[in-house]
Amino acid sequence: PLGLKEHVLPTHRSGLSNAGGNFFMAGVGFSFIFSWLLMLLVLITFVLGGNIYMVVCESWRSQQLFQLLDTPGLIPGFNLSELLGQEGGTTNFSEMYRQCQQDAPLWQTLHLDQSVSLDEVLNISQYKGEISTAFEKMNITLSPISLLSQDQKDTLLNASRAGQPPNFTSILEQLDQNVTEGSLLDLATELEQLADKVGPEVRDDLKADARQLRELDKEMQTSFSVPLHRLKENIHGVQRQAAQLEAQTNAALDKASQAQEFLEKETGNIIKNETWAFLEELLDFFETYISWAKSSLTGDVARCKPLAQTLDNVETITCDYILDSLNAFWFSLGWCTFFLLPSIILAVRLAKFYRRMDFADV
């Protein structure tokens, strides 16, 4: 446009204007030479981007892709239920994807309970019969148990007989009498009676001696009464316990004999019963562990939400980042191709107003 002057004849146009017209025609020539490559590129990217987006992305979001995969006979010889060992199963990709999005375990997603019965595989009760039979055949033999030998029994009997106290009857009779051989009170009374008969020079001494005797008797009664009473009680206690010693010894020996007979007869059964109780406790532990293993395997192990998230991430990367960009690319090139024909017509029409003409076209 800078080289174009309105009043100049076409045969006298400047070189700048002529170069502009040549560029128009060069653009038309390059367009005819390379436009098929542009059209082919638009076609290929359209077929790839547009069709893959509609077939994969749109069908993925509408779940039609999974319905297509679930169509029986889509892939010859492929049956997901038979592949998982399920007879007449209804396992399909749509249900698996939905359960994986809910973070369900693979045991539930793949319906493995239809092909593998955990109750049969992990059923410990089927082994209890064998264990019981083997346990009943077990024979427990123990060495003879002897709590007391015959010599020990004889020693105890002799000791109980030798432990009998002497006869305390005479001693108790003596303890019931006065501490002194005669009564001090009677002696004091006699001294007082004698004092009344003698002269006054001896009377006071006799009465003083009588008072001393009464005080001495009182003091002796106070000092000796409590120990004597305790001594009597101790003697009676010794007599009672000594009388029971031999009977208690015989009773203890009888109990020892009974205990020995009980141990000889029942020790094997006791050990067997306690061993069986311990074995049952171990079996309960195994059942508890098996229950935990079953619940973990069917409810906690191998949750497939990461798999669903991986598929969603692949769909996001493929559709939102790759195919959307590819669709924008071919859409832009398509508009360029669409405007290519008008631009060729316009360039041809404008070229004669810029190029230098050999003959003036009036």
What is the helix content? over 70%
Subunit arrangement of the protein: single chain
Number of domains: 2
Main β sheet profile: none
Give me the secondary-structure category.
mainly alpha
**Average pLDDT score:** 76
Number of strands: 0
Q: Give unreliable regions as ranges.
A: none
What is the terminal separation in angstroms?
21 Å
Strand content: under 5%
Task: Please tell me what the overall shape is.
Answer: elongated
- The whole-angstrom Rg is 64 Å
- Which sequence of SSEs, written as H and E, runs from N to C? HHHHHHHHHHHHH
Q: How many helices does DSSP assign?
A: 13
Protein name: PRM1A protein
Pfam families: Prominin
Subcellular location: Cell projection, Microvillus membrane
Membrane topology: Multi-pass membrane protein
